[in-house]
Predict the structure of Cupin type-2 domain-containing protein.
Amino acid sequence: MMHNRSNISSYVTKDGSRIWELFHPGSSPVAGFSVAEARVDAGQETVAHVHHRSQEVYYILEGCGEMSLGGDALAVIQGDAILILPGKRHNIKNTGVGALRILCICSPPYAHEDTGTGL
């Protein structure tokens, strides 16, 4: 099975990023994980949030930014992979001039109900 982002509708998640779900149990014959591409425009940032059950990996495809991960500030660039454990508050800000593109892998799969944005 193969998908191309250009053939997938995007939507905005609870953290404010625009994503394209490449593989998700709701739309693909996969179980136990999801894969999406997220985009954060220049000068923008996601809302700080946690995933109560899911662990997540951000893989920076393009751009640069600053990530807050459990209170730590991390400068991120293309090629960086960041592990986000359940319950770890995080957000990312695009500090570059172009789009920040991130491959997001979640296990269990991403779900709005699993995402908390309240401080």
Observations:
- Residues 11 and 23 are 14 Å apart (CA to CA).
- The chain is about 0% helix and 45% strand.
- The two ends are 40 Å apart (CA to CA).
